[in-house]
Amino acid sequence: MNMKPNVQPLQNAGEQRLQLDQSALDAAKRSLEDGAVTPSYGPWREDIVKLLNDALATELVCILRYRRHYYTAKGLASSAIAEEFMVHAQEETEHSEKIAERIVQLGGEPDFSPDSLTRRSHADYDASSELNAMIRANLIAERVAIEAYTQMISLIGDKDVTTRRVLESILSQEQEHADELSDWLSA
Ligand SMILES: [Fe+2]
Ligand SMILES: [Fe+2]
User: Does the pTM exceed 0.85?
Assistant: First the structure.
C-alpha cells in the first residue's frame, strides 16, 4: 500500500506522452485484502476515512434532530413542516448509508458509536419545542453541513474521485434542505 505509481506524462523526444504505470497495474493484482483500494490511491486513506466518519456522525445527529422535530411539530398540528422534517430525516439517512458504504469500500470501519456521536458531529442536536426555533436550528445545522462538505470536497480534490462524487451529491441535497428551511423561516 501507499506505493505511489509513476503516472506523470513521460518526456519523449521533447514530446509529452500519456502512459500508464505497468508496475502499478501488476501491483494491483496483489494485496487483494485491500479490496477496491489499489496502489494509485495514495497515502490519504486514513484521513479520508476519518473525514467520512465525522460526516457520518453529523448525518446521524441530523437524523435524530429531524425525527425529534417531526414528532414535536406534529404535536403542534404543524403537519406541513412536520412532513418536511421527516423528508429531511429520510434523506439524511440515505446520506449516512452512502457514507458508511464508502468507508467500508476504503477498508475503514464506520463508527456508529452513540457515546461519541455529538462530539464527532459538526452539527448540533436540538430539542426546541417551538416551531421557529426548530426551523432555525435545522437551518444552522444545514449551513454547517454545507460548509463541512464544501471543505471536504476541496481537500479531497482528485485524491479520491469516488468519495468526492458521493460528497458532491450529498452537498447538493444539503443545499436544497437549507433553501427550503430558509423559505419556511421567512414565510
Ligand atoms: Fe445529510
Ligand atoms: Fe440536510
Answer: yes
Ligand 1: distance of its center to the CA of 186 in Å?
Answer: 22
Q: How close is the Cα of 139 to the center of ligand 2, in Å?
A: 9
The model's pLDDT over 107-146, given as tens digits with 9 standing for 90+, comes to 999 999 999 999 999 999 999 999 999 999 999 999 999 9
Per-chain residues with Cβ under 5 A from ion ligand 1 = 59, 92, 95
Q: What is the DSSP letter of 116?
A: T
User: Which of left, alpha, beta for 157 (phi over 0: left; psi -120 to 50: alpha)?
Assistant: left
Cell of 44: 490519504
Could you tell me how many helices (H) and strands (E) the chain has, helices first? 6, 2
